[in-house]
Amino acid sequence: MNKVISSDIKTNKRLSMRQIMNLYQVTKEFKGNIYFICNHKLVDAKKLSTFVSFVLILQECANMKVILEGENVHAMLEKVQDICKENEENALGFLSNQTVNI
Fold it and tell me: CA 35, CA 43: separation in Å to the nearest integer?
């Protein structure tokens, strides 16, 4: 059964390119839709070019809202929050057992 949830995410610093790619990868694997909203701008996280542009223009300590629609939304929300909260040491590499397919 599909569910819809939303949550606010506050990043401590600008997301690294690794974090952006990790977000994109888990989004692609999610059976549903993930949207990010910030400053009245909405982006579909499955569209790589617009997603990267959106995240790169966010200010440090940006407040953004994530909306998830699909199956297992709570588990996916936890993954998204974990990726956004990664510190610089963890952001240097991709999540273990994941590769990025573009």
Answer: 6
Pick from 67, 21, 24: nearest CA to 45: 24
- CA quadruple 34, 37, 38, 44: dihedral sign: positive
pLDDT of residue 84: 85
62 contacts 7 by C-beta, under 8 angstroms: no
* Mean pLDDT in residue range 9-32: 87
- Rounded to whole angstroms, the Cα distance separating 100 from 57 reads 22
CATH superfamily, domain 3-91, is HPr-like (3.30.1340.10)
